[in-house]
Each structure stands twice: as structure tokens, then as C-alpha cells.
Amino acid sequence: MEKIINVFGDSITWGAYDIEGGWANRLRKYLEERDEDYFEVYNLGISGDNTDDLLKRFKNENEVRTPNSIIIAIGINDSQYINSKDNPRISLEEFETNLFSIIRDARVFTSEIIFVGLTKVDESKLLPVSWDLTKYYDNENISLYNNKIKEICEKNNLPFIEMMDLLEDEDLSDGLHPNSVGHEKMFLRIKNFLLENKII
After folding, report:
1. Inter-residue contact 43 to 14 (CB < 8 Å)
2. Following DSSP, what letter does each residue of 76-122 receive, concatenated?
3. How does pLDDT run along the chain (200 residues), one tens digit per residue?
């Protein structure tokens, strides 16, 4: 059986700081090596993306790849704030609206929609971030956005893979992006979830 999986997200999905291309690429390699089924996994993570950005390309990306399954791992950049928590990159209310839009658009292509939760960060390196001193990430804010994803998945009866409890500070390259060890942990949790739920 041939199955197409589209994986959407940001730089963590894309695989920044991992020589093996991140958890999504590890999933692709794992499925390529299996004999019983044929899977095509498209890593559609783009560095810096938030839910606004994803919505701009979401329909087109799916139209050209006709997925059987869609995995969505987005939101950590939405939780980022500029100079003050009162100035989020994407407000929690807008984030919620965007998630409902993403789910609506995904259902045009498949009923098999899986959300991957957000990962914790090492705040000592990200308050502010070293590459832009106006930008901040903190775990309290990330948890708010992660809980919103979880809440919306529950309302829509969609699978949610928790990640906030998974990584330690030593699993993060720059405080934000997982290193190879972190990506391997993410891959194993996602792979096991997909196997247990007969998605792969």
C-alpha cells in the first residue's frame, strides 16, 4: 500500500542543528526501510514559520501532494514575543483561529490529521534570543500555546503527541532547536505513537 504523509512545521520540523535532518527526516528514513508498505514522507517545515505563514501555503502544498495523512508541528514561533509578553508574534486568540482554519483546510484532503505538541526551551539562552535581542521565548508562554493545541485537538477528536515533557536543556543546541539527541527522542515518540495508532 502506498501512503503519502505531509509534515508541516517550522525549523524544528525542518531539522535545524541535526546532521540527520531532524525527526521528520528520521521518520522518512525509517519508513523507507520498511518492507511491508510504501510511504512517501514530505518534510514541509520552513524555518521561522508560524500559523499565519503556514496558512498561506497549506492548501497549495497539499494539493500537489495529495496526502493520506497530515502531521502538523507548529506554534513555537507563534508563542515568541517581541520585547514584552504584551506583544506576542501571534496572539493566543489569533493562534486558535488559525488552528481551526488549518484543521478545516486539512480535512479537505484527509481525516488523518495529527498534531505534534511544542517543545520546551532553555530560557537561559532565549530571554532574549542571541540572534535578535528583541525576541523572547519562555516555557510559560509556550505551554499556553501548547495547551491551546491540545484543547483544540480534544474538541475535534484529533490525535495530539505531547512533547513538553520530553527534552532536557542538554538536548537543545541553542536553547530553542533540538540537537541530534533531541531529534532522536522526538522521532522515537512520534514513531511509536504512529505505530500504536496504526497510522504507519
Report:
1. yes
2. HHHH-EESSTTSBSS-HHHHHHHHHHHHHHHTTT-SEEEEEPPPP--
3. 689 999 999 999 999 999 999 999 999 999 998 877 789 999 999 999 999 999 999 999 999 999 999 999 999 999 999 999 999 999 999 999 999 999 999 999 999 999 999 999 999 999 999 889 999 999 999 999 999 999 999 999 999 999 999 999 999 999 999 999 999 999 999 999 999 999 99
Amino acid of residue 137 = Y
The length of the chain in residues reads 200
Q: Which domain, by its residues, includes 21? A: 2-196
Number of domains present in the structure of the chain: 1
For the entire predicted model, the pTM comes to 0.96
Helices (H), the chain: 11-14, 22-32, 51-63, 76-79, 92-106, 139-155, 180-196
Q: What is the CATH number of the domain that holds 135?
A: 3.40.50.1110
The whole-angstrom separation of Cα 120 and Cα 158 is 22
Bridge-based pairing state of the strands 81-82 and 135-136:
antiparallel
Q: Give dist(CA 160, CA 175) in Å, integer.
A: 24
In this structure, what C-alpha cell is assigned to residue 129?
A: 534570543
- On the 0-12 / 13-18 / 19+ scale of CB atoms within 10 A, 173 is middle
Cell of 97: 483561529
